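Propose amino acids for all 124 sites.
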């Protein structure tokens, strides 16, 4: 990958202390998304820790890929923070692959559009 082609990854924590190693882990995992789709503008990852007495400690990871066209959003929950990040990146990767597949099918199989207006006739 080119060093001049840096991608914006925003990592934030809710009720969670973000350590440098956790930020590095998220960035390393996110590189896979940027390798598969180079037109990603920005990736936002929110990590949240829910401490409830009944369920114990649960980690939620929410991701948003800002890309040309509709943005992709996903969220997952796990009992470990690193596991939640890995599951989130897998889910976002599957969403990008599906989006790519649908765009390729649409590009290769265009359908006709009917116009309601009458077009003027050209005399040759």
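Proposal:
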């Amino acid at each position: 990958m080119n060093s001049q082609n840096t991608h914006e990854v925003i990592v934030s924590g809710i009720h969670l202390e973000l350590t440098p190693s956790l930020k590095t882990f998220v960035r390393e995992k996110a590189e896979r998304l940027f390798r598969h789709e180079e037109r990603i503008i920005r990736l936002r990852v929110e990590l949240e820790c829910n401490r409830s007495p009944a369920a114990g400690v649960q980690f939620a990871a929410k991701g948003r890929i800002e890309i040309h066209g509709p943005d992709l959003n996903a969220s997952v929950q796990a009992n470990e923070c690193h596991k939640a990040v890995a599951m989130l990146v897998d889910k976002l990767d599957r969403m990008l692959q599906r989006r790519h597949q649908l765009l390729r099918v649409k590009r290769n199989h265009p359908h006709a559009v009917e116009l309601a207006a009458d077009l003027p006739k050209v005399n040759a």
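Residues 8-107 form a domain with the Double Stranded RNA Binding Domain fold (CATH 3.30.160.100). Helices lie at 20-36, 81-108.
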